[in-house]
Amino acid sequence: MKIVKKMAILASPLVLFIVLFLPYAWLNQAYIVKWLGCGCPVIDDFGNIVENNFNANDFTALFWLFVSLCTTAASAFLSGRIPKKWVRVLYVAGMLLVSLLIADQFRLILAWS
Q1: Which residues lie across from 43 on neighbouring strands?
Q2: What's the rounded Cα separation, in Å, for the pair 81 and 39?
Q3: Domains identified in the chain, total number
């Protein structure tokens, strides 16, 4: 039981993704897309595609990258509970990888095309 509790504490930074997904999805739809525009191509009167340099999709990618970095920082802080240094490094690297994968999936789910 003690090991399960320790594993739950070590995995707890990933809860940040779960907590932020629905509020960010709502904010993205209600405000961010209206503010920055979607990633949809805009065509001018002459049939040329007007480039939209920074849009809601880019903001979403940066937001989830920031959440991923916060998750990794929290993991580095929590890694002090792990006695062996090589396991600590492996844990933080694994959390970075998992958080980047989750961030990429959320970016794809929330993308405007």
Answers
A1: 49
A2: 43
A3: 1
Residue 4 in any domain: the answer is no
- Which tokens in the block code for residue 28? 């993205």
Residue 1 covered by a domain: no
**Structural domain of residue 69, as residue ranges?**
14-109
Residues 6 or more apart whose CB falls under 8 angstroms from that of 64 comprise 102, 103, 104, 106, 107
SS3 assignment, position 111: coil
Say if residues 92 and 53 touch (Cβ distance below 8 Å): no
Q: Residue 49: left (phi > 0), alpha (psi -120 to 50), or beta?
A: beta
Residues 6+ apart with CB under 8 A from 51: none
**Average pLDDT, consecutive stretches of 10 residues, N- to C-terminus, the chain (113 residues):** 86 94 95 86 76 86 96 94 92 96 95 81
Asked if residue 9 is part of any domain, the answer here is no
pTM, to two decimals: 0.85
Q: Are 33 and 56 in contact (CB under 8 A)?
A: yes
